[in-house]
Amino acid sequence: MSKLISEEIKDLLSQYQDPYLSSDLVTAKVLRDIKIEENKATLDLSFGFPIDGYKPILEAELNTLFAKLDMDIAYNISFNITSHAVQQNVKPLASIKNIIAVASGKGGVGKSTTSVNLALALQAEGANVGILDADIYGPSQPLMLGVEGKPDVDDEKKKILPKIAYGIQAMSMGLMVDDEQPMIWRGPMVTQALEQMIRDVLWQDLDYLIIDLPPGTGDVQLTLSQKIPVSGAVIVTTPQDIALLDARKALKMFEKVRVPVLGVVENMSIHICSNCGHSEAIFGADGGQKMADDYDVKLLGQLPLDKGIRENADSGKPTVAASPDSDIAAMYRDIARKTAAQLSLKSKDYSSAFPNIVIENN
Ligand SMILES: Nc1ncnc2c1ncn2[C@@H]1O[C@H](COP(=O)(O)OP(=O)(O)OP(=O)(O)O)[C@@H](O)[C@H]1O
Ligand SMILES: [Mg+2]
Predict the structure, then answer these.
(1) Ligand 1 atom nearest to 306, measured from its CA
(2) Domains and CATH numbers, the chain
(3) Which terminal residue of the chain has fewer beta carbons within 10 Å of its beta carbon, N or C?
(4) pLDDT digits (tens, 9 = 90+) for 109-126
(5) Looking at residues 180-202, what average pLDDT do you find?
(6) Which residue among 235, 237, 305, 310 is best mutated to probe the pocket of ligand 1, counting the most ligand atoms within 8 A of its Cβ?
């Protein structure tokens, strides 16, 4: 009897297409267990990405789905974020489960703004998050997160302590050196600085470290792709064709080193007039979608050209922290879930699961 009911529940559940996993919850192996007790069923659902904001939406969807069943349905919805595979020959780090790089071809398309809001949105969804400003030549994060002053050092561990801003761990080259100094940095210095910001900073228990990259495909990107264990990349672009051409270069660079591109964020997609509410695609429509289709990656989201996004970021409190209930914050939260969901579908890192093999000569 209960077997039949659980089969019926499974059948119904497999009709629900999860928007983040692009599959039903049975196929995606999110359904772990169904417990039946008298007239009550409890569904155990476990996701591989943070879902605090999605949970109530999902429960409402499932309630509708199961409304025709004559029984109580309860949900036990959780998430568990695991480490995912990185480039060959690069070792993953114990304190950071996943590094996600945010890149673009062209400058000024909104990488830093997207990175910081993405980091805050992942945290709002329940993850433990850090952000690293790797734009050695023009750091933005101290301003965007309103952090200043040299970071403290843990003398015992001999590590630099990240700043804490709105609950996320933050580090920027801008906090370490004088404004003009890095402009002349080249190859080896950049490599060393970036490696230090990953390995000599006391990052603690991070599910995700977001790396905000400088524009283009220069020294920082080269170091990142060769020395830093990256699980995935997000490409930010504006809809103009020229920006897209550059964005394709950035995408290709990650493909070359086998870092999965999790998707494309189209920034400044449409302009909404603050007087009349009229929306207009100033830079052309659907460029991001076309790029995503061409390269078979996800369009993670489209953000409007919005005065509030700029004002919030420039005043040290990004929109996700400043107006958590706004439509814009909801867009970033959706992008965060899509990004993390895409990563959850990639291969896991099993390197820590293997024992060290020691060959002894007895
Ligand atoms: N969706 C948006 N609407 C309005 N303004 C935005 C939006 N996204 C970013 N901006 C603004 O555009 C400017 C450039 O953004 P940002 O610094 O994030 O770009 P970037 O790609 O990191 O630039 P760089 O290549 O110099 O690192 C900033 O003033 C930012 O506040
Ligand atoms: Mg930037």
Answers:
(1) 3
(2) 2-79 (3.30.300.130), 96-344 (3.40.50.300)
(3) C
(4) 999 999 999 999 999 999
(5) 81
(6) 310
Ligand 1 centre to CA of 112 (Å) is 6
With a Cβ cut-off of 6 Å, ligand 1 is lined by: 104, 107-113, 135, 138, 140, 214-215, 267-268, 303, 305-306, 309-310, 313-314
Residue nearest to atom 31 of ligand 1 (CA): 310
- Statement: the pTM of the whole predicted model exceeds 0.85: yes
Cα-to-centroid distance, 196 and ligand 1 (Å): 26
pLDDT at 79 over 90: yes
CA distance 327 to 324: 9
Q: Is the pLDDT of residue 356 over 60?
A: no
pLDDT at 117: 98
Mean pLDDT of 196-204: 95
Please state, rounded to an integer, the average pLDDT across all residues of the chain: 90
pLDDT exceeds cutoff 70 at 360: no
Averaging pLDDT over each range in 91-95, 136-140, 177-181, which range is the top one? 91-95
| Spacing, Cα 287 to ligand 2 middle (Å) | 21
Ligand 1, from 102, 112, 131, 267: best to mutate by most atoms within 8 Å of Cβ?
Answer: 112
Protein residue whose Cα sits closest to atom 15 of ligand 1: 110
Is residue 133's pLDDT more than 60? yes
Number of the ligand 1 atom closest to the C-alpha atom of 215: 25
